[in-house]
Here is the input.
Amino acid sequence: MLLCRLLGVHRLKTCATNWGGLLVVKGNFLIYAAFSVYLLGILFTAMGVYRLWAGMIKPGRVNWALLPGTVVAEMAYIFGSLITGGEVRRAKLMDGGRGGSGRGGKSSPGSAGEAEPTTETAPKLRHVGPIVAAFMSVLACGAGIVVVHSLLGEPVTEQFTEGRTLGLAERLRELPDSTGAFWEQFACQINLLHRMAATWTELDWKDWRVPLFVYLATCLTIRLAPVRRPLRSTLAAVIVLAGIIALVGVIWKQFDSLVDNLWPLVMYVWASLLFLLWVSLIARGGVGLVRALAGKDAPKTRSRRRETGEE
Here is the structure.
């Protein structure tokens, strides 16, 4: 505003208007930047939750439990491969483990590679093809979450956004730019996790929409992450999706209101994954502690020592 005053009083109004426009553009950019960061956070957290579950329970059972999300993700991935001219050589929702997950085509019994969805493609476009396929998979799961929320999610999101949650969601729209802001954001994340735990205990689970929405949203959210597909392609797809959303927001001003309406849903998805990750880590630690106290890890330890020649 000091620069505006130096330019003259008669141009003060025009300069102030332009300055305000720059501030609005900067604010929108920060919102979309935060949106992109949370998309990446959701992706990595979903991967962590799935790997923890597959390490405690047989992967086949985990994948059967996540079947709705698996169908959406794999069908969208196949569609993305085909529209880029690629060839789908093999597609299985539940692989029996014979094909293996490694390069040598082998997988050890009980590993996370068994009974996982497998889609083998030969992309015509070597680098672009996998990114487009992963983009379609992420887009389909995200659209599925939005559709399920519009049909079934009203009782859950209303309960989640009660009280201070809206204030937390608004504060989390701004990325930290200092050490103090970082710790403030960290405290908000803890409060968001606490609010998620309280929401799931306060929900009316007798309402058929509540368990159905929680189940379908969880399946679609965890399947945002790749299981046996290249991680780099999915990361690139998420970055491209975030860039498209930001570009549309800059060109189409009414898109900001859509992002504002979707932000509580994004916070619900993020908070639910944080809660599942927290519960899974505690369960995994408890299972490991019980196995250690029961002495079930001793034979594995001795066999590893024999392989390394320590005994």
